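<discrete_fold_record>
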Amino acid sequence: MTKSIIREIGPLALNFQDDKVLIFFGDNAPSELREYSIIHDVEVFNQNDFSAGAKLVIGKYVYEIEAVGGEAANNMSKLGHLVVYFTEVPDEILPGAVYAAPHIFPIVSNGEEVLITL
């Protein structure tokens, strides 16, 4: 299981609702990206969780991970960085991306858990 807690929601982080994208970063997010990011504390990390078929839980929302880019687990491990797309999986998957279904943009709040588990 991978577990994090949402600590801060950048003032522009939810501006990507129409594109159905959430950007997560650890507390060390670069200042120019912090305002666009969901800042979270990664409490538990398991690289094996980053695979198609795993569950992604954000607060009360439950998703199935459909595809994972080759750098997503590494980015999460080192930077707390994760980009989640609630869209159809494209032909070319971005290296740091996770694609989740259903394709519904979640409402997020400070203090909520984010879980990834097989």
User: Anything to note?
Assistant: Residues 72-79 form the longest helix (8 residues).
